[in-house]
């Protein structure tokens, strides 16, 4: 039968639609979802010319080919499964783990059908996109077994997950930010995850958000979604810039208008960072969720709120402000010269201050009325940090539990109290800084002459009182020696090892694993950075105060020491 042209075109169009529909059917992969019903021009996964197994390949070559095939994420890692027995291929999950390696070698095991893939790794990503950075030259061994299928070697036993060379990783995965709330719901705290690039990114992000925060933020941030929240189906389609999130009935059942509004805000701030998404529709079992009028207790949460641009410092044994190129005495504060003050801190909200005495054995605070009070005594305090809730943090390295917090209102909230942190046992805390959102602590701790940079969530009770830090902090591995660290934004920090005599190289590190070296400065004794646009980085020596201009340091005409941004 001869088909007319319109009939032929209709059949071709129908075939293409069927093929497109098949491409949107997700298998068991969470990270590799493909969007349904999307007419947006989404980025596609990077395509490699990886090859399937060649007939007659020896067992070692099959193992090596399996590693190389991890570069192809298409069709739920179909290429990787070609190197497996049908039984293993049916159960194996490629998206459960990604090992990022710098070097790889395949070693023969004790038995002829066993091999060990020896890797030098730089990091690992789990099924929810959480990236765990590893120290330089870390190694990992992956054991596999092979057998013959129709006289061809195939892998019969292997752990879930893929292995990617670092150069390939950066082409296949990209960082995305999902957001959770601080305990007051006034701030949105970033949680950077890594997902394969492509049309499934929105699905991966929402599923990760519903699953909860990364380990280092556990119990420190909250979600507007209950732990029972799930998608009706594993897809968040994007059409004409609108991302549709269809939630199960359990996700929203008995939720107040405020709770729904918090959910909507959390989704919007998470997804609209994608270029393909401008609006988010929230459905419950295919029915539009009614948000209602703005709740009386609903506030728009802040993201990366700016630090005030006025710094605190010491000059002539008095508190002074540093703003731009000017140094101004702090008014309304009594004479504190008898304490020989050092290392001051200032609240980001209000006019409260803290400082140490000259021997670092006393922590002093100054309240809104200008009254000076002794907050704590100890043996070796470090520079304090004041969080957005008014709590002053420091560490006393002469105490059994070094971390110490002091309430804004000692009379009403009690005196200074220690915070026990198991992973800080037998360490010397050299630096402590609280994030602008008050949800995270940035800590440098030294043990056996080696320093480690930690970022940990702050666990608070229902009244906002700090009770501890998360059990599994995130570790950061700079390329420079470190003794101090400061926040540069809600997802970047600056680290350095201070010295009165050596050239000091500071480094900016982002949660997306970018880094930049700052210019060398001889005898750098302090460094500070503020969150927000046009917040210059300041560094100091024993004789001069500098601001960063480009990648060099420019000395100011006047000098103040122990300079710090609020917080």
* Rounded radius of gyration (Å): 28 Å
Mean pLDDT: 90
- Number of DSSP strands? 39
Uncertain runs are 1-43
Bin the helical content.
10-25%
Shape: globular
- Strand pairing plus helix content: what structural class? alpha+beta
How far is the first residue's CA from the last residue's CA?
Answer: 80 Å
The largest beta-sheet arranges its strands as: 4-3-2-1-5
In percent, how much strand structure appears in the residues? 35-45%
Main sheet specs: 5 strands, mixed
The helix tally amounts to 9
Region (Disordered): 36-56
Organism: Glutamicibacter bergerei
InterPro entries: GerMN, LpqB_C, LpqB_N
Domain GerMN: 202-293
Descriptive overview:
- This is LpqB family beta-propeller domain-containing protein.
- It comes from Glutamicibacter bergerei.
- InterPro entries: GerMN, LpqB_C, LpqB_N.
- By secondary structure, the chain is an alpha+beta fold.
- Helix content is 15%, strand content 37%.
- The protein has a 5-stranded mixed β-sheet. Strands 24, 25, 26, 27 and 28 form a 5-stranded antiparallel β-sheet that branches.
- The N and C termini lie far apart (80 Å).
- The N terminus is likely disordered.
